[in-house]
Design a protein that fits this description.
This protein has 11 helices and 9 strands. The protein is of the alpha/beta class. Strands 3-2-1-4 form a 4-stranded parallel sheet. A 3-stranded antiparallel sheet has the order 5-9-6. Strands 7-8 form a two-stranded antiparallel sheet. The radius of gyration is 21 Å and the shape is globular. The two termini are 33 Å apart.
């Protein structure tokens, strides 16, 4: 009997920060309608799909679906969609499965191990985290707090993922045949800005779902209680207890440029950046794919 195929994604250190999947789902923001409309306009969904309930569904792979923040928006669309949601994190899959979304099949897997055959879907979406875009002094302070942590693991904010696209965009018709592209050219890029109105406590609850902040709940908090310090070194790493981070986040929200509404909610600015392509080569071009 063959041994099970290993899943590299399941061992990634960042997954430890998503252990509290229910809190992640409760406090992470959803995607603005304009973002969803822009993304879906790039997918091969027939115009008649929304008007004709009898139209055959368009099968979409939602890769890295998480707890289904994007998946549930897809499931509510009028277009006839059949969604396969693939996610490596067991806790997040349980939350997603618990939503019982119509037309959604949840499967275990990741980018390195997609549990589908070639040509089995008509479109693929991968929803990366929504990013905060500092447009004010207080948001810039929040960004500084985030960047003060460095656990030597790649994070979305490091934007290393952009290199995949930038490298391909720098190709020319003369060099592309010797390349090993992951996506067919040309690549499209777009972004949608948004503003959320969130209570101060809600901003903290959202902030603490960031994976490298969420992991501060354990040994760092215990050691800080014993030492009564705001920061300390552990195994060669600078550790900052959760309560210290929370205090700094709330101090940032005391800046004079914080915009608040009549409900006492704070304006939080962000944007969704997305790329799209028309096809994914099944083999490198240099090998004849």
């Amino acid at each position: 009997m063959s041994s099970p195929t290993p899943n590299p994604a399941s061992d990634h250190p960042a997954l430890a920060g998503f252990a509290a999947s229910t809190l992640y789902d409760a406090h992470r923001p959803t995607y603005p309608p304009s973002t969803l409309t822009s993304i879906l306009s790039k997918l091969p969904i027939p115009p008649s799909s929304a008007a004709d309930p009898a139209a055959p569904p368009t099968r979409i792979l939602d890769l890295g679906a998480g707890t289904g923040k994007f998946t549930e928006l897809l499931a509510r669309r009028e277009e006839q969609l059949e969604i396969v949601a693939v996610e490596p994190h067991e806790g997040m899959r349980r939350v997603l499965e618990g939503k019982g979304l119509e037309g959604v099949e949840v499967r275990e897997g990741g980018a390195e191990r997609i549990p589908l055959g070639e040509g089995s879907v008509e479109g693929v979406v991968y929803n990366a985290p929504l990013s905060w875009t500092p447009t004010t002094k207080w948001e810039a302070k929040i960004k500084d707090i985030t960047w003060s942590f460095d656990d030597k693991h790649p994070r979305f904010r490091h934007e290393q993922w952009r290199k995949v696209f930038d490298k391909q965009l720098s190709s020319t018709p003369f060099t592309i045949q010797m390349a090993d592209p992951l996506f067919s050219l040309p690549l499209g890029e777009d972004s949608v800005k948004f503003t959320d109105w969130v209570s101060k406590e809600g901003i903290w609850e959202r902030y603490r779902t960031i994976s490298h902040i969420a992991v501060l709940e354990g040994e760092q908090m215990e050691v800080s209680r014993v030492l009564s310090v705001d920061k300390f070194w552990l195994d060669g790493r600078l550790m900052v207890p959760t309560q210290t981070v929370k205090r700094k986040v709330f101090e940032a929200m005391e800046e004079d440029d914080v915009e608040m509404n009549e409900k006492g909610e704070v304006a939080l600015h962000g944007q969704t950046v997305f790329y799209w392509t028309t096809a994914v080569p099944t083999a490198p071009l240099k090998s004849g794919g």
